[in-house]
């Protein structure tokens, strides 16, 4: 064996950021492949019935899920019908004055439930966004909605938590990753927006 023959060409190294990116995209794709179009259709029907009955869609979540709730409230207010025949919708995490008042006076677990107690009624729908499904304020919101006779829906990750069995309809993605869980919230929200736009403008 010559000296030249003994030299082994090193394998190209895999950049960790490239690897992370590819892994993340692959995981998100696998998770979203479990989304049931018939379940989305069912929720679209629920929201259209709510609208026809003069109801309001309330959204809530914590952290990134709170931001997603506010984002989707915008989409459902304008995006589904730019001419004005959209949904009545409110993100319960949007008013910092209300949140800090309720958190300070009656506890963080009640920041969403109390707002529902004051404002909501049976023809309304609650959509909760939660990675774990175990946050106290999410559970209390669902319980308050049930007491009012509201329809309850959730987009959940991990094992679905305490929220999953309480909901009338649950979109559950069994992924142990908070960022992927939050991505599913926006993706479903955007599909709903497009579906509602289609129904309200061309139905």
UniProtKB/TrEMBL annotation:
<dbReference type="GO" id="GO:0016853">
    <property type="term" value="F:isomerase activity"/>
</dbReference>
<feature type="domain" description="SIS">
    <location>
        <begin position="47"/>
        <end position="202"/>
    </location>
</feature>
<dbReference type="InterPro" id="IPR050099">
    <property type="entry name" value="SIS_GmhA/DiaA_subfam"/>
</dbReference>
<dbReference type="InterPro" id="IPR046348">
    <property type="entry name" value="SIS_dom_sf"/>
</dbReference>
<dbReference type="Pfam" id="PF13580">
    <property type="entry name" value="SIS_2"/>
</dbReference>
<keyword id="KW-0413">Isomerase</keyword>
<dbReference type="InterPro" id="IPR035461">
    <property type="entry name" value="GmhA/DiaA"/>
</dbReference>
<protein>
    <submittedName>
        <fullName>D-sedoheptulose 7-phosphate isomerase</fullName>
    </submittedName>
</protein>
<dbReference type="InterPro" id="IPR001347">
    <property type="entry name" value="SIS_dom"/>
</dbReference>
